[in-house]
Structure formats: structure tokens, C-alpha cells
Amino acid sequence: MSDVYKFLRRCGIYYLATVNGGKPAVRPMGAVMEHEGELYFSTGNGKEMYSQIIANPAIQIVGLQPGTRNWIRIDGKAVEVNDVNIKQVMLDACPVLVKYFDSKDCGFFALFKIDEMEAAIY
To answer: In what order do the strands lie in the sheet with 38-44?
Structure first.
């Protein structure tokens, strides 16, 4: 388990920024997974966030550990992953997602890995 993943999990809630017509769009997130050394997050493919990522895959994640001044910034490129086996791993790692996606085959379950990731912990 990487230090980046461990730190992000301790944050609980993190904030993911996308580009929306040249402006940042930021939203709180909670589900995150590390699988085979790569970081993943999910969303629904009917959400604005999904459309923004497809139009411009540049993302940034920021998280603050509760009760501290310790924070993380992650930059990268979101790449959609359609492998249902990895989607199942995400559902197993983040059971709260079952409230939104009833199975790995759910038609609106979008999964992204972060490529070209650069992370800094402060």
C-alpha cells in the first residue's frame, strides 16, 4: 500500500477538481482504491463530473487529514477503466458504492485510474 493511498484514506473525504469549460469544478469524494499500484476513483457516467473528465482528463485531488494541518495534492490524468473485474475490486474495497452501483455490470458505473500521477504530502 502506497503512502499516497494510505494518506488519502486517512483523509476520509477528499476533493476532486475537474475542468468545466475552462473553470475548475470541485466536489467532495470518499471512495478511493489502490489496485496493483494504481489509484482509482468512481462516478456515474450520467454526472457532469464524468462529462468533464471525458472532455478534459486533467484532474486534481486535495485532501486534509481531520484534526491536523497535514494535506495532500495529487495531479494526474483520469483514464476510464471498463474492466468489470477491476470494477468488482472497487466495489469490494468501497462497499458504500453498492448504494449507487448494484453490481460490476451496472450500466452507469464509471471507474477511472489516475495516470501520470504526481503527488505531494504537506
So the answer is: 23-29, 14-20, 58-64, 71-81, 109-121, 38-44, 33-35
| Separation CA 72–CA 70 (nearest Å) | 7
Question: How many structural domains does the chain have?
Answer: 1
Q: pLDDT tens digits for 51-67?
A: 999 999 999 999 999 99
Q: Using a cut of 0.90, tell me whether the model's pTM lies above it.
A: yes
3-state helix, strand, coil in the chain (%, to 5): 25, 45, 30
**Helix H or strand E encompassing 50:** helix 48-55
> Which residue range forms the structural domain that includes residue 18?
3-121
**Which positions ≥6 away from 85 have C-beta within 8 Å?**
104
Contact 14, 45 (CB under 8 A): no
CATH code, domain carrying 58? 2.30.110.10
